[in-house]
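Inputs:
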Amino acid sequence: GAVVSQHPSWVICKSGTSVKIECRSLDFQATTMFWYRQFPKQSLMLMATSNEGSKATYEQGVEKDKFLINHASLTLSTLTVTSAHPEDSSFYICSAKTTAGEASPLHFGNGTRLTVT
Amino acid sequence: GQNIDQPTEMTATEGAIVQINCTYQTSGFNGLFWYQQHAGEAPTFLSYNVLDGLEEKGRFSSFLSRSKGYSYLLLKELQMKDSASYLCAVKNSNYQLIWGAGTKLIIKP
């Protein structure tokens, strides 16, 4: 089945530093990947849609200069949280679809739990 | 606005049947998904409905009524490992996924 690998699984960083999260599609090519954030006991919140070879599309309220997304290849997208603050502490999850069809479900990475101290 | 409503929490007994409801109000409809999410983990895909009716997949079934803006996920022969949150998500006319807050299902022995 479709496998999406996300790394790291968890990270603790100090306030003001930057953190990079990688998302890889291991056995398929993903022209589009999605980045979500999930706070405790809340649903998934789409942050941005990452398109291979072009700029990401950010959802309203998400700062593109703070959450840098790079989708340089068909199998890799990265999310960099710049100048992290404690309020950025959350569960970040990437996802991708194996095909462009609307019935195609999302396959999620295992998520990255970010804690900013 | 667009919203997805699901019960916050449900409790059921091992071996029993439970039905998790989802009602939605979205700008258009292009399919409804159910995902399972264990605590601390990412969601995994369970089912997809785009036409009215029941889709059965093993112990899990999902039903859709587009005229009522309603879906349910039916879990049979409950097992302890089914304890998780169940997320309902609807794709609207712009093909955006609108997520419900999830239903936390607690299975008791």
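Chain B touches chain A at residues 30-31, 33, 35, 40-45, 48, 50, 87, 91, 95-97, 99-102 (CB under 8 Å). Flag for discussion at group meeting.
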